[in-house]
Q: What sequence folds into this?
């Protein structure tokens, strides 16, 4: 199956489930509901839920879209948490991004106060959705995985270190920490969730979690490189933003050549972690997608 | 037992548990950890956890501090969610409060970006703590109760309506909605959590939830009255803030006398809901605490 077809078919069932979960509850909170939907349906690539589907279907040893129904709560929870983090990251006091995916950020459209609450509400909704999973043990394990990925040891911690590092001299270990936590933690959670729902063995979950961490870091290193030498088309946003914001990047700390070598090594490491697994074609496509962005 | 003694002894075990849960995880995120601890340990009265303990001990039909160990995860989760809501409410784009409990607000002390993340991290931590409850069914029920109380149908929804209502003419039903959701929802959750952990019957949980909603609304109506006619000492903050911020209050919509009558009626309704229950002395003291603030 072509990865494009895989993305289209899996996105399709995800969008329907997201629309269902984000049905407005009450007229009186309609502006808040609208802000949540605005950001969730603003053209995200759904990478995390689709990586999660792909991992589950690899474990299942067959691609079968009809078997994905029970995965929808966790798939939607992943996307809602990711969206919440983007809304809060874009705020003026954090990254101050007025645009996201080519349209005004949530706070530009709805005001800062509503954007802050929309982020809070999406985090809350993500957890609520996970409590709907029928099997209580799996439901709790999913909540544990997601909250760990969000916590001060995960995404929120990475963002906190990122904020403190702005306009400061940091070393490569700190930059690696930021990328691993801000991007890697939730990708790792996506694959761990698939393992928990499939009931995979512990060592498989650890291996796939490491695959996700390597892939997430590779993605960020490539992003750093594109910020230096890429075009708007490949990067999906204006290049040169990091240096203008005095943000440390892999090229600014290691130079361009060594950064490229680092990205290639991370992609090779990702590939090596899954190359002996059966039905790994979509996961390999994820590695190739990142590799193809490398200039 | 005097309510003062009850508060001191129960606060004491709560503080120890909060300190344990908020032990910093990693040097690299120390500023975020510090911001979380700063707001949690800034002199809050711990009303929600103590109402939760009192409800459980009433159901247990005896006051026994040694039986409260298993309640600590939910007690701490309640306080962390409450603190998160205060941090986000105080932000410049929301209520713009530079002080809280007589000291600088979290964002004044640590910056807005860290304050936003500290709120997010406290919400996440609250859910993580609830997953530690040994019995999976109870753990999941607690997460359901807490996330419902926080959601767009609860606290966050109330805050969203409050923001939209600022400097607008609203009616008494909208003001009632804001108070019920912003304050009542989490108090209701406190009592529902006690019922779930004790395994009380459904109708008891509904009755006690209604008690909490009435009490929370009464507290807010009294607060509105004190904002108009109270002193700094009784109100705990500078009076007159609401009218200066063009915020609707019960007295501004109903007049002072009718507001007092409303508060008295709500307190009577609260009392009537629990008056036939055994061992209700601490809950009655909660009603009296609110009544005593009425000028």
A:
């Amino acid at each position: 199956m072509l990865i494009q077809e895989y993305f289209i078919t899996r996105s399709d069932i995800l969008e329907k489930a997201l629309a269902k979960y984000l049905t407005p509850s009450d007229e009186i909170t309609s502006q808040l509901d609208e802000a949540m939907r605005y950001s969730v349906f603003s053209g995200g690539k759904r990478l995390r839920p689709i990586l999660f589907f792909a991992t589950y279907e690899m474990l299942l040893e067959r691609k079968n879209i009809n078997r994905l129904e029970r995965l929808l709560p966790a798939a939607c929870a992943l996307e809602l948490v990711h969206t919440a983090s983007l809304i809060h990251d874009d705020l003026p006091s954090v990254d101050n991004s007025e645009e996201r995916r080519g349209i005004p950020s949530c706070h530009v459209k709805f005001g800062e106060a509503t954007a802050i609450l929309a982020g809070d509400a999406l985090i809350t909704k993500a957890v609520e959705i996970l409590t709907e999973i029928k099997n209580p043990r799996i439901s709790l394990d999913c909540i544990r995985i997601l909250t760990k990925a969000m916590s001060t040891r995960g995404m929120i911690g990475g963002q906190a270190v990122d904020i403190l590092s702005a306009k400061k001299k940091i070393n490569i270990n700190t930059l690696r920490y930021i990328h691993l936590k801000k991007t890697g933690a939730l990708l790792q959670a996506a694959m761990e969730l698939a393992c928990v729902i499939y009931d995979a063995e512990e060592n498989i979950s650890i291996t796939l979690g490491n695959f996700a961490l390597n892939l997430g870091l590779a993605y960020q290193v490539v992003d750093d490189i594109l910020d230096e030498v890429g075009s708007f088309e490949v990067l999906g946003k204006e290049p040169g933003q990091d240096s203008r914001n005095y943000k440390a990047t892999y090229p600014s700390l290691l130079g361009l050549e060594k950064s490229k070598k680092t990205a290639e090594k991370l992609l090779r490491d990702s590939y090596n972690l899954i190359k002996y697994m059966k039905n790994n074609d979509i996961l390999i496509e994820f590695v190739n997608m990142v590799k193809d962005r490398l200039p």
Q: What stands out?
A: Chain A has one domain: 3-286. Chain A has a mean pLDDT of 94. Chain A touches chain B through 49 residues (CB under 8 Å). The longest strand of chain A covers residues 99-100.
